[in-house]
Amino acid sequence: MQTLFTNCTLYTGPGATLEPDSYLLTDTSYIADIGPMTKVTIPPRARVINCKGRMVMPGLINSHNHAAMTLFRGLADDLELSEWLHKHIFPAEKAHVNREMVYWCSRLAIAEMILSGTTCVADAYFFSGDSARALRDCGMRAVVGHGIVDFPAPSVPDPKKNIDTVADFIEEWLDKDELITPAVFAHAPYTCSPRTLVKAKALAEDRGVRFFTHIAESPKEMEMIIEPQADTPLSHLAALDILDPDSTLIHAIWLSDSDIAILASTETKIVCCPQSNLKLASGIARVPEMLAAGIPVGLGTDGCASNNGLDMFREMDIFAKLYKARYLDATVIPAATALASATSINAETLGLPKIGRLAKGNYADLIVIDTNSPHLTPMYNADLLVYSARGSDVHSTMIHGRMVMENREILSFDLTETMARVRELAGTIS
Fold first, then answer.
1. Over the stretch 395-406, which tens digit does the pLDDT of each residue have?
2. Which residues fall within 8 angstroms of residue 353, CB to CB, at 6 or more apart?
3. pLDDT tens-digit readout, 250-278
4. Is the pTM of this model over 0.70?
5. In the chain, how many H helices and how many E strands?
6. Nearest to 119, CA basis, from 102, 135, 141
7. Are the beta carbons of 105 and 65 closer than 8 angstroms?
């Protein structure tokens, strides 16, 4: 099916200027044409959506989330990372994480993301086949990493089977669905031994999928690492030969100068989660130093239990402002950098080159922003999206050529049913 967006202000991606009075044509799952309204031709049988001056832009990409953790939103607030994780989250997961929980709570996260303009997410959790099913059923593009730890986990009660379980998950989903890309998620070097990390990376290499892990999230992390192979968490991974362009590291807060040099030389991908890090008092990642070293930095929300929201507009805003205050430099992270981190850089971070920009031949993952509101008037350039826009400004969302939300109404699944099911699950938590 072809869909023609007319009379829109077009923003094709980082580095582009705003193009008023434009059109964009999609054909099945791809962008077929872009141009000024003076040159538009309406194809027969195409659906025409008159944007009435609204902005059409690339869908936002969330490069780190634990979608099913919507169940734990607000469960353990105002705690530092170690206490939050070990005394509250791990016990809650042991008691409440199962296939039903992962499926329905992932759907709730998907609703929040679609409503706030996210069209692709990197998800990492347990029972990942069920989160992948929820993402597929709701029409969300995703890279889904199955969790690996060296202790009994909800979906892998026998840790000796952790690698085999993930291998089976990859086999089930690899090249089986246009929206879902499986991946390996080794939780962290303090929950995975060197042997497990090496085996997890080998599995990712063998299957040709991405490898994800949390790293350097806490100043105390080095004390917790299992059998440390070096003197920093990052160099520990380097000593295990895990760092390369197909590895994505999450958080990467506590890095030394030599760690940053290693990241640059290995072209390892980085995802920063500023709001989660601030809320857990984990620290502030050295993003300006990484950017200066030529390391692209992607952006994620982390899960609802540590953020507590999944609005990437909110994430971009604080990402850009945080470093201005930290370095007393208003130019250190420009709005354009934050916007790239949530679109084109995140596409690179996830190994998905056909999203993150609006261009002919790219996937039709896009959002329509209602710019006809006081807080978005006037709009001189795209920087305003970072500092003034919010998720509630998203009017419509298209993923892979399919309208999943229109005029603030989710079309791809029943939101009322989803919220009711999650409320039932929340009622079991004492």
1. 999 999 999 999
2. 347
3. 999 999 999 999 999 999 999 999 999 99
4. yes
5. 16, 17
6. 141
7. no
